[in-house]
Amino acid sequence: MLKGTQQPATSAPDTDGWIKSTCPYCGVGCGIEARVEDGHMLVRGDQSHPANYGRLCSKGLALGETVINDGRLLEPSINGEPVPWDTALDHVAKAFQDSIRRHGPDSVALYVSGQLLTEDYYVANKLVKGYIGTGNIDTNSRLCMSSSVAGHKRAFGSDTVPNCYQDFEQADMVVLVGSNLAWCHPVLYQRLKAAKQQRPELSIVVVDPRVTDSVELADLHLAIQPGTDVALFNGLLNYLAENDYLNHAYTEQHTRGLADALASARQDTGKDGADFTLISTVTGVPVEHLQRFYKHFATTEKVLTVYSQGVNQSSAGVDKVNSIINCHLCTGRIGKIGSGPFSVTGQPNAMGGREVGGLANMLAAHMEFGNKEHQQIVKAFWQVDTIAEKPGLKAVDLFDAVDAGKIKVIWIMATNPVVSMPDADKVKRALEKCPLVVVSDCIADTDTVRCADIVLPAMGWAEKSGTVTNSERRISRQRQLIASSGQAKADWWIICQVALRMGYAGFNFNAAADVFREYAQMTGFHNQGRRDLDISPLAKLTNDGYDQLAPQQWPIKQQPVKTQLSPAVDQMPEQKRFFAEGQFYTANGKANLVPVSYRPPMTQASRQYPMALNTGRIRDQWHTMTRTGLAPKLGAHKPEPYVQINPQDARSFQLQNGAIAQLNSKWGQAKARVVITADIKPGQLFMPMHWTAVDSSEGRVCTLISPDVDPISGQPESKFTPVAIQPWVYQEQAILISRDAIAVSKFDYWVKRKIEGGFCYYLANHQDKPLLVQHLKSLPAFTKKGECIAFENKNNGSYRAANMLNGELLGAYIVARASNASPLDASQYAWLDTLLARELSTDIQRSILSGQAADSLVSGKQICACKQVGEYTIRDAIQQQACNSVAAVSACTQAGTGCGSCVPEIKQLIGMYAERDL
Ligand code: SF4
Questions:
Q1: Position in ligand 1 atom list of the atom nearest CA 29
Q2: Would the CA dihedral through 344, 349, 351, 354 be positive or negative?
Q3: Residue range 662-720, pLDDT digits in tens
Q4: Which of 33, 53, 56, 899 best tests ligand 1's pocket when mutated (most atoms within 8 Å of CB)?
Q5: What does the pLDDT look like over 451-478, one tens digit per residue?
Q6: How far does the chain reach from its first CA to its final CA, in angstroms?
Q7: Residues framing ligand 1 (Cβ under 6 A)
Q8: Cα–chain-centroid distance for residue 352?
């Protein structure tokens, strides 16, 4: 139930109570409409938003469930003691001033986030680079797409994304590289899928070491060896040159460096033309697949290459980006309808952060360190005597400097680096010994908040007002939907208050609109078309105009500003693409073809650490789950940290499906549930990135991850870390449901997940430890005087119990003797998830005692998060109703009729159960 149901402070567009805003998760930047009804927030897709035209994925559809007060950070505190805002702000300002005075500006730092709004980001950067005079502000976008930024700048002379989403529909060939679009940018995937359905001749190639759900659409899947993308695209460049597919007119007029780029490509992939055997040996892609891909790319004019973290998160990330861009430049396939290299960002406002200089190596408004004119422009605009003269420390170096005691005060905003940074234990240790750690967040308990000395409550998604920019350069308003919780404040306001207390002028903003107007003005300041980013007409927006601002792609070089709510995209005077005229932002106006050479990941597998660990996101969760973890239905699809392993490796390491594995690397260790699958090749592992120390004993994958970074972008190599894997030996497993959270210190392995009415825990203890039942019996849910029922089978070591009071189930657990050789299949007990939300019945009691769900309780592992449809419901539709197509299953069960992200799994189930039936 929502507390903040008062009217929001802004006058946002409102149709029948529905307020338009933007989804706060991935970089697709979908438009939503929200309305509070009976104390609950309803969310639906905005039909008129050009990013999604009404579509939302499972995360967007569940947004309303996450706008609750559970776990919110409500008041400022110092060393755990609540304090008034003034005290906290004074303390932060004084700590920064003291450190700067005693140790210089480089002794302080901000680590910010792609979750911040552009207005927040702008003032944070202005404070650090403009007034404090250090470059030490970096952002978690460093972990997401900084290699793309560096690649763009090398090639185009600017961090420009040339494409727009319509290119997904207008391309004749789409190449997805290092992108599980189906799970990580689901609405773009749905657009691509719709395009493929309309035009089956649209060719889709997926380049990914794993078989992901995105492969479902692919005409060709190139399962490359991790990190070999440069060899693949250098081979393509070589092939294009050898077979006379280069666009010489274009390269001569609009590019430079072709000869050197080609020489590097030939060095890598064959001096006398593309040597398919050589390329195949390096990339692991069969020769005939390479031939098909190269030929098709060469002969298709409208090719869109979409890439994401699989390319960026690498010690060769920038070279990978340039190897892709090279192939587009040398064929002139850029800036044209349906073609170009398209970096899609992970975070909702990674692009906004790039615009205002959120990365340590950038100045605001797409201006650069090292460019004297840009530095003068920034100084003049902000009317400051000095600004930072050199780039600041990038994320990994920044936390190393904290660890080394060089940074003495750090302020972390809206991000959770103790979970998401590589070598995450080192980051935790660094923060624990840092003299002062300030954390602004909207969530009270995160791994990073636990390390903070001063905690500042920030507004959450539904409370904030400002703008975000999505992957296609579209600025959308994020509007305040409800009043703020507790004493939470807007991030821009908190930053400005600290700046003013430090005696800095230039932070007297009254509203987010003021900040936006100043930022918009800066983009046009001494620009005259020399910089790509220009939204200066928006500096004239009135407050009402700002509130009413429709989604708007930049650049915006001329009036009028649209004030209609959401005009159709074709009516907008937008420049959808960059570089149509072949003019780039380099000194001579020509794009650079950058010579790049393949090099393998920095740390190679060894005898001690023989497996290559890949990491990534799952369909229904976002980042460290501080918000998506609040929605029970989003937790059911992948309920525990898991590690994917090939059957051959599982045999070698004696791992059973569903057992618990321990993973070790040079940097740390983690535990995860084993998933054996041929979707991953021998020698490789995959683990998702979401679990934290708040919701799991050892599910933080980033403790394992190598801190190796790309030498140019500083982006960590999160897709390749050599690890060892082995069974973790345990003697019992339990699944517990409880209305209240439990103390977990007595359990060696635990994972906590929110369910309707309470929490679900997966538990296991090491074989040397006391039996789980002893601990479980002592939990509050079972010591309360109620009606306790229990069943024990001493022969097989199983124990099942429940406690009920006043006709309500307080908690229940199922314990099984289990081991690596014979693990408990937790998916068989998915029905436990629903019990706390049901009326207590004899069916429930019987099911708990028998360990067998009554028919009325069974739906199996959740497949469709939007419509809450489980595997057994789909199985029954396939087997009993003869539903042998997705359409038939959807008609029968509703599964797949929400966001559509579960369709690949429905197809798999049809294959599985229809086959069995035969
Ligand atoms: Fe949000 Fe999903 Fe759209 Fe991404 S694709 S912005 S997570 S609704």
A1: 6
A2: negative
A3: 999 999 999 999 999 999 999 999 999 999 999 999 999 999 999 999 999 999 999 99
A4: 56
A5: 999 999 999 999 999 999 999 999 999 9
A6: 48
A7: 23, 25-26, 28-30, 52, 56-57, 59-60, 185-187
A8: 15
